[in-house]
Amino acid sequence: PNICVLISGNGSNLQAIIDAVAAGKIHGKIACVISNRPDAFGLERAENAGIPAICLDHKTFEDRESYDAALMETLDSYAPDCVVLAGFMRILTADFVDHYLGKLLNIHPSLLPKYKGLNTHQRAIDNGDEEHGLSVHFVTPELDGGPVIIQCKVPVFSDDDAGTLAQRVQEQERHIYPLVVHWFCGGRLTMNNNKAVLDGNVL
Ligand code: GRF
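Structure tokens predicted for Phosphoribosylglycinamide formyltransferase (203 residues):
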């Protein structure tokens, strides 16, 4: 299977997927990495791994529709079986999501349905939560609302700030996301009737 990864920044999740493919833990090929930001460090990670690294700068497009249409066209030229959002910090149009429905994955740094959107770590702290975490889910047109595949919890400590908590969550992200991509590429994970199904079991 062809995996295409969309990023906006550091790309630590991308790196984890690159490493897992190199280690034979994901049976697939990273066909391309696309960033909406020219300065994303993840583009360098892709280049270092010999993966086509493309910048499609959203600032050079008039609106969301035209950006997403261009993104779709670029992506489709790599014939993706799986589109992985890895810190891609843009809301996607329903047209885009529908086009890749069932093969579009996202990682979100909260225990969904809690804290959809941004600033999840600070919101968990402000709310006095004792647990926080991450969710990997299929993307549907509802923002951060698609069926959850797997979640991982971490503790929140009293001296945490958003930075220390984010670090604790991200330490788990780099183990969980490659595993999900591995399941997907092995044909074990699908989305049916808006539900995530792994090995025939509804999650
Ligand atoms: C991760 O925390 C992810 O959950 C969120 O954005 C961050 C991206 O980090 N959506 P990186 O670019 O993979 O290092």
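The radius of gyration is 16 Å.
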